Amino acid sequence: MIDLPERVQRTARSKGAEGRRWLDRLPDDVLHLCGTWSLTLGGALDGGSLAYVARVRTGDGGDAVLKVSPPGPDVDAQVKTLLAADGHGYARLYAHDLARGALLLEPLGAPLSAAGLPVAQVLDLSATVLSQAWRTPLPESAVVAPGEDKASGLIELITVLWSELGRPCSQELVERALRYARRRAEAFDPDRSVVCHGDPHPGNVLAVPSPRAGAECGYVLVDPDGFVDDPAYDLGVVIREWTAEVLTAADPVGLLRGYCARLAAATGVDAQRIWEWGFVERVSSGLYLMRHGHEEYGREFLASGERLLL
Predict the structure, then answer these.
(1) For residue range 65-121, what is the model confidence (pLDDT) as tens digits?
(2) Helix (H, G, I), strand (E, B) or coil at 204
(3) In which element (H, E) is residue 296 found?
(4) 139: alpha, beta or left? (left if phi > 0; alpha if psi -120 to 50)
(5) Which of 16, 47, 89, 241 is the least crowded, having the fewest Cβ atoms under 10 Å away?
(6) Does the pLDDT of residue 216 top 70, yes or no?
(7) What is the chain's alpha carbon radius of gyration, rounded to the nearest angstrom?
(8) How do strand 52-57 and strand 93-97 relate by DSSP bridges?
(9) What H or E segment, with its residue span, contains residue 205?
């Protein structure tokens, strides 16, 4: 028996028969991995919704983290990104089993989201970690075909899910997001692209036990999507996260514009690009979360987006 958080179970079930099959075989996969890698299983870790994550003890008495996800291209991209980064801006990867969607990772501490730091410091640390992560070498097959850039994918996702979910937000919100996404798709430039993390919210920025080479600021990223695109996309995800602040601010637009300016100053990335990506991500994430069983959380993203139409 394994202790699988309800949020992970709910996401897996939302994916139909494939998700249920993964849930059914997960205990056997974990047992196999523990035997193959000489691991002693510890407690499950909460925080994500897509994978089983647990602390483990290795055969030599060291600590590590076992992560098991549904196998597929997402896991392949994670492994490739972590291997290429070699611990610089990212958690170190000790071992992997692509057939079972399994990664054995460096043990890390609490996420940046739980550090209780002022927003400005969270933004600064996020910018520092991402600037390190963007040095990850581009893969040899880094050609992005027309229509396969991130913005083009988000245009399709927003269009399909808004209709499929019964139009859970205003048409104006969707049209603004699609306008920004089309602008980002038209501006895609492979020469200024990097290996994007893809979801660098503060919950995916974790503390290292002590500063080390590649993690001099004390934090690294986990769970990379590992696609090639505009670095401003990652920064847009960073500003997407502040739903409570946006929902309660007297001037939500001014608040987020200030966040964009701070991130731009720290990274040299254009503030307007950050703003547009952040808006697109706020809408697409809200719809995606609703589609995969997290309706209340998704509606918060959409409601915060409506406040940015002022």
Answers:
(1) 999 988 888 899 999 999 999 999 999 999 999 999 999 999 999 999 999 999 999
(2) helix
(3) helix 295-307
(4) beta
(5) 16
(6) yes
(7) 19
(8) unpaired
(9) strand 205-207
Question: Rounded to whole angstroms, what are the CA distances from 278 to 127, 180, 294?
Answer: 15, 10, 20
Q: How many CA atoms lie within 13 A of 305 on its CB side?
A: 29
| Residue positions counted in the chain | 310
| Residues 111-120: b if buried by 16+ CB within 10 A, e if exposed | bbbebeeeee
Among residues 109, 233, 248, the alpha carbon closest in space to that of 181 is found at 233
C-alpha span between 285 and 291 (Å, rounded) = 10
Spell out the domains of the chain, with CATH numbers in brackets: 6-105 (3.30.200.20), 112-307 (3.90.1200.10)
Who contacts 95 (Cβ-Cβ below 8 Å, separation ≥6)?
Answer: 37, 103, 104
Query: What is the CA 70 to chain-centroid distance, rounded?
Result: 16
- Chain-centroid distance of CA 229 in Å reads 14
E strand or H helix that includes residue 300: helix 295-307
pTM for this predicted structure: 0.90
Q: Render the burial of 19-46: b for 16+ CB within 10 Å, e for the rest.
A: beebbeebeebbeebeeebebebeeebe
The answer to whether residues 219 and 206 touch, using CB atoms and an 8 Å cutoff, is yes
The structure tokens 């991209």 sit at 77
Q: How far, rounded to the nearest angstrom, does the alpha carbon of residue 46 sit from its chain's CA centroid?
A: 15
pLDDT at 47: 61
The tokens describing 65, both together, are 């983290």
Measured between alpha carbons, how far is 174 from 125 in angstroms, rounded to an integer?
31
Both tokens of 120, joined, read 């400005």
Greatest pairwise CA separation for the chain in angstroms? 58
